[in-house]
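Worked example 3 (structure in, sequence out).
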């Protein structure tokens, strides 16, 4: 308790300035930096500190995992070239576990090949930033990802989104919030969720190849409608060749829906006019 002088009974000052500082510390976002280069690790930590974040530093995937056992950060900045397990492997490990799936992971790397971007998003990464970077740019992207992931989690109780399937890296990035909701809000096992992801990625690649071959816009749009009770994935034609694409790739006996049904991630495939609807009855489950 405070006395009239603003002191506790043990004589410690507890004025408003101290309270403000303590509250500021409690609300600072904690960011785990996984970077094996000590100079880069220190630079990123200094940047984060200067912008009001609380940096936590790890030099390897193994060290990062040991820190995660003790406490969960608000976000992770992850290098890809690490000793031992690579950043890709660490990202995949964290993003296929319910307890760590919701943590935003931002790749921060010198690798800038298309295959690296693709592998990162396939592993579940939320954002990809290449080195060199500016302090303002890094922090702006970090803040944007924190806000986007928070909004996505809030929308998981009833998620609706639409993606024009192009076979690009953008498809993979756009699918990740949906995959996070499956981990956090459904009873589907990780293996089932990853089978669904793989099938949708396969379908997106096929759509991109179709568009390139026929010289037209992407043939189909995927609309996701997810609640705690059911999942609907509707695919509808959006170009002249869209109907032919769906007939070839989304027939009930085609490879993608057949793999979904075999894996137990889809119960039914139905045709609703020009649309093909893949449906699954669900039970609720929350991230721990």
């Amino acid at each position: 308790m405070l006395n009239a002088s603003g002191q506790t009974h043990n004589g410690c000052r507890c004025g408003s300035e101290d309270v403000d500082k303590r509250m500021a510390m409690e609300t600072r976002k904690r960011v785990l930096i996984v970077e094996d280069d000590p100079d880069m690790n220190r630079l990123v930590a200094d940047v984060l500190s200067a912008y009001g974040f609380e940096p936590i530093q790890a030099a390897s995937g193994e060290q990062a995992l040991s820190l995660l056992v003790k406490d969960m950060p608000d976000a992770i900045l992850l290098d890809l070239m690490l000793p031992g397990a690579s950043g890709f492997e660490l990202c995949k490990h964290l993003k296929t576990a319910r307890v760590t799936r919701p943590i935003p992971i931002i790749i921060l790397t010198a690798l800038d090949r298309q295959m690296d971007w693709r592998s990162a998003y396939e592993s579940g990464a939320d954002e990809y930033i290449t080195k060199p970077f500016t302090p303002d740019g890094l922090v702006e992207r970090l803040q944007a990802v924190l806000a986007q992931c928070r909004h996505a989690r809030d929308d998981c109780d009833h998620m609706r989104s639409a993606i024009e399937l192009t076979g690009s890296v953008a498809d993979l990035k756009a699918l990740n919030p949906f995959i996070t909701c499956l981990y956090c809000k459904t009873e589907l096992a990780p293996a089932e969720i990853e089978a669904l992801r793989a099938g949708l990625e396969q379908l997106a690649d096929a759509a991109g190849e179709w568009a390139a071959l026929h010289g037209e816009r992407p043939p189909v749009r995927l609309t996701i409608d997810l609640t705690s009770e059911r999942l609907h994935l509707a695919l509808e034609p959006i170009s002249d060749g869209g109907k032919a694409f769906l007939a070839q790739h989304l027939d009930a006996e085609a490879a993608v829906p057949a793999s979904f049904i075999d894996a137990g991630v889809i119960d039914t495939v139905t045709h609703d006019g020009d649309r093909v609807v893949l449906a699954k009855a669900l039970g609720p489950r929350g991230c721990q």
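Notes: The longest strand covers residues 220-227. The chain is about 45% helix and 20% strand.
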